[in-house]
Amino acid sequence: MSGKIHNFALSFVLSSLLSTAALAQAATPASDAPAPNPTTGPRIAIVNIQDAIMATNEGKKDFDAIQKRFEPKQAELKTLSDEVENMKKQLQANGDKLNEEARSTQVRTLETKQKSFQRSLEDAQNEFQQANQEIVNRIGQKMMAVLEKYAKTNGYAVVLDASNPQTPVLCCQSADITKELVEAYNTESPTTAPAAPATKPAATRPAGTGTAPATRPAAGGATTPKKPQ
């Protein structure tokens, strides 16, 4: 897959839930929560919520659909980028052969083309980010409920989100339950995973365009969803 989309400005924060909060105890009365083993203390786990959201069957299906939806726009941006680059090369090659008026005209045309391309690129990126945010919001809200249930069932008193910079996990001997959370989510929200795509040549990113829009969000590029009310 071509270059990853970065800088998602998603509005969900998990630190209040996945830092030092006790998931099982916060969700249920203390009498219903699994008692910690007095010899080992409370069970602690880590999870990467961003990876988990993308690894669910529902997430794979929805992110793949968005990528296909934006493929025409990505092709359009590639064409515009090529036009801009060709105009630059022509100006560099022939600029000294033109009179001042002709050269000024080509420079203005190039600047107009560049501004138009940049606006189209920014609009496509914003639209793509919003579409991805909607998926993360929707799946993330349901995943938090699954995580809370999983933590209670398996006796985890604390779960830290390894993908959230506000709750950094620098070194931890605790269990990583990301895979188990994905499996639990797929059970709670059955969705058929998309078929694996046939191998394709990597798409060329438009020169000088920054990041192309039609890519799946990178791990670590989004904040995590907050606990559903």
Kindly describe this structure.
This protein has a domain at 23-34 and 41-188. 50% of the residues lie in helices and 6% in strands. It is built from 5 helices and 3 strands. It has a 3-stranded parallel beta sheet. Helix 2 crosses helix 4, helix 2 (49-55) crosses helix 5 (178-188) and helix 3 packs antiparallel against helix 4. The radius of gyration is 24 Å and the shape is elongated.
First and last CA, distance: 36 Å
Order of helices and strands, N to C?
HEHHHEEH
How is the largest sheet built, in terms of strand order? Answer: 2-1-3
Structural class computed from helices and strand pairing: mainly alpha
What is the overall number of helices? 5
Tell me, briefly, the overall form. elongated
* Average pLDDT, all residues: 73
Largest sheet: 3 strands, parallel
Q: Give the percentage of residues in beta strands.
A: 5-15%
Radius of gyration: 24 Å
Q: What is the helical fraction, as a range of percent?
A: 40-55%
Find the count of extended strands (DSSP E, 2+ residues): 3
Low-confidence stretches: 1-39, 200-212, 217-221
Concise synopsis of the structure shown:
The protein has 229 residues and is mainly α. Helices cover 50% and strands 6% of the residues.
Helix-strand layout with pairing:
Blueprint lengths: L22 H5 L15 E5 L1 H7 L1 H38 L5 H54 L2 E6 L13 E2 L1 H11 L41
Parallel strand pairs: 1-2, 1-3
Keyword list:
5 helices; 229 residues; mainly alpha; three-stranded parallel β-sheet
